[in-house]
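Researcher:
Attend to token order:
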Amino acid sequence: MHQLYVLYEDATGYALFRTTEFEEIATFLPQVQDSVIDISKFRSVVFLVAFQKFETWREGLENLKCVSTGSLHKDLQLFLENNVPKSKKSTQRVMLGVQDPALATEIKDTLGLNCSSSGAVTEIIRGIRMHFRKLMKSFHDENTIMKSKLAMGHHFARVKVNLTINKVDNMITHGLNVVDQLKRDVNTLALRVRRLYDCHFPELFKLVPDPQQYIMCVKVIKDRKNMPENIEELLQCVLKDENKVENILKNAQKSMGMEIAVEDMDNIINIVEQILSLMKQQNTQTDYVKSKMHLIAPSLGNLMGEMAGARLINQAGSLTHLSKLPASTVQILGAKKSLFRALKSKEASSKFSSISKSSLIGQDGRITKGRMSRFLANKCSLAARSDCFSVDPSGIHGEQLKIEVENRVKFYVRKNPEKKHKKGRKKSKKVKIPMEIER
């Protein structure tokens, strides 16, 4: 025969219940499932053995923190030692039902009790949670139980969330995600406009490859055969290049594109208006991210630029996480996929991280990107720590770090390390080793 004890953790304290004896837990499960909904049937299956109430909310918070992490608190250990009987081989086998498998493993290793967290245990705990107030004879006021649960929930949430009121860096993360999403939407719609307008004026994209200028030109030109009289001035305001304007007007007269209907042109103009609205929202959101970076992480913004610094914070998760990362991890932020691909194929790692794309490193061939990436990652880590742990962060530290980075770039350009490396390399002489002839 088996005797099952069930541990139930509540905001008010620990409760230990005992079930009726059974031979196999597989045969006991249908009996529990039939009695969970009806309290009268459930009372015939589950009985209260002991209850230990938390004296203060601090005591309850410490116990619940241990339960959530799967560790055994001293109060829970004493409660189980005093109330759970040890199983005897000759009579019945005692088993303890625990909801959390990690806590069940810890109890088994510490106290040597046989623990289970599946099967009938899950259904019994569900029934206890449903009828807990009725099973507890000492609790008659339901409002008291709800208030204690609500208070404990608030305290436990503060510990788990750890909100910082002064530095809301998650606004930077969400703002940057909005900017990226708007950019993708603009590119998608701009591609659709190009495919639609290419049927009417296919030469325009070769003359104006920039997507934003292309959209503005489509809005100004519309039907190339019925262009407004001041079209040259309008195109000059958009492109600010007289040669491009002349080429557009010449190609518009002899274009190989087909004629377009008024309804089709109205449809294209409507999409263009949506794209321009999204571009305006993107610019507004970009300014918002820059302003938040100036308030929360001014040193990192002065060193890397507001948008590049915001991207580092987004990839790290938060400013606090970024400040705790070593410089070697900061160096590979944004290039984890390509890094693991290079490690798997045993090839040279590609320079696609956010640090390598920085304008401080540049595209000059005389600068070794690996060296500058390590140096810049080190300075970014220092700037993030300065912003995160300063009482009143200012951008002075970031400006000083940027001067150091610019001086290092000038040093590499002046010394030209690649040529120096090639000159300093010496070819090893091949030494012929005489072979011994066996006699």
